[in-house]
Amino acid sequence: MTEVECPVPLSAPSLLDLRDIDAGRRSETWTGSVPTYFPGLTLRDLSGTPSFGMIAGTPFGVGRLWFVLSPPVQVLYEPHGAENAQIFSIMLQINGSTIARQSRRCGLIGPGQVCVIDNLAPFELEVVGTASQIMFLQMPRHAVIGRHPHLEHCTARAFDPQDSGTALLRGVLLNILESADRLQNDQRGAALAAVMQLLGAAKVRELSRAAGVPWRVRAALALIDAELSNPELDASRIAQAQSISRRRLDELMVAQTGASLTAKIWLRRLEQAASDLIDERFSSRTVTQIAFAAGFEDAAHFTRAFKRRYGCAPREWRSAHLKL
Question: Do the Cβ atoms of 139 and 89 come closer than 8 Å?
Fold first, then answer.
């Protein structure tokens, strides 16, 4: 994999640029500032005085986009706070290389390669060589894992660089980084939603050679996402699309995701509604409109199910997360 050309990074003022810091304070500044922007991170093995280092970030829909130029360093993460733990990140290595470790998995992420990181569990990142240019796109964990539960077990591994779906995802991420500052808020939200869907197209090497069970589950999840807003979508319809019995497909779903087809439909609808409620693009929509758009037919039923899943009413969820 050859190095990719680095697009123009976020044009908004960087949060930190070591070139603006006195040389004698650069090491201290980098070590102290990084945990401020990324709660739960600690740095070690930052040797000498770094001559460069930059962090730029900007809100991106219900997530956040980051560009990081890092000197050689090892980064350790421990889950920090309930809100921060609900982040799932896609990482694009632009130039340089980074070793990623999480949940007994380890991967060398080279130029142009993509991997995912889960804030729910500890992880390590180690910059290899002289520098590392990385793009991170932070997303709501429930929205990603709800669509692609297999990714929970694929963190810290490079996606298959020969896979066409991976190439498509990489191209979209590079375009996002280059054009982020020219996108309006609603466009950023739409782009983030597109990336979350495209994660299902990219393949991790192990999944590329997987047997029949995973593909049936992934196909079922893809159909659920495609027809989520259709209130007539049910388990029988999903099984019929694969010419398999509902009972057999339920067995596969439970084995792979811990939920039956019917339960998964409900969970995905609730996750979609929860995501839409805090999406600025839909701030003018009522709670009922968002519930119907996610495939619910009864507002009262939706509210009860939402309270059971998230511990609060939909309006309370929106008020706590959405800055109106």
Answer: yes
C-beta pairs of 181-184 under 8 Å, 24+ apart in sequence: 181/10, 181/11, 181/12, 181/58
Q: Is 19 exposed, middle or buried (0-12, 13-18, 19+ CB in 10 A)?
A: exposed
Lowest mean pLDDT among 45-54, 116-125, 265-274: 45-54
Q: How many CB atoms lie within 10 A of CB 130?
A: 10
Which helix (H) or strand (E) covers residue 214, if one does? helix 212-226
pLDDT in the model for residue 323: 54
Residue-range definition of the domain harbouring residue 313: 211-321
- Give the CATH number of the domain where residue 240 resides: 1.10.10.60
Q: Quick one: which H or E segment has residue 194?
A: helix 185-198
CA distance 207 to 211: 8
Q: Which of 207, 230, 256 is the last residue of a domain?
A: 207
Q: Identify whether residues 165 and 133 lie together within a single domain.
A: yes
Compute the residue count for the chain. 324
How many independent structural domains does the chain possess?
Answer: 2
The pTM for the full model equals: 0.73
**3-class DSSP state for residue 3?**
coil
The CATH number linked to 168 is 2.60.120.10
The better pLDDT of the pair 49, 228 is held by 228
Express each pLDDT in 256-302 by its tens digit.
Answer: 877 889 988 998 899 889 888 988 788 889 999 999 999 999 999 99
Burial of residue 85 (CB within 10 Å: 0-12, 13-18, 19+) is middle
Torsion angles phi and psi, residue 100, rounded to 5: -110, 135
Most confident of 117-121, 160-164, 206-210, 248-252: 117-121
* 295-298-304-309 Cα dihedral, nearest 10 degrees: 0
The pLDDT assigned to 210 comes to: 42
Alpha-carbon gap, residue 277 to 29, rounded angstroms: 37
Residue 5 domain flag: no
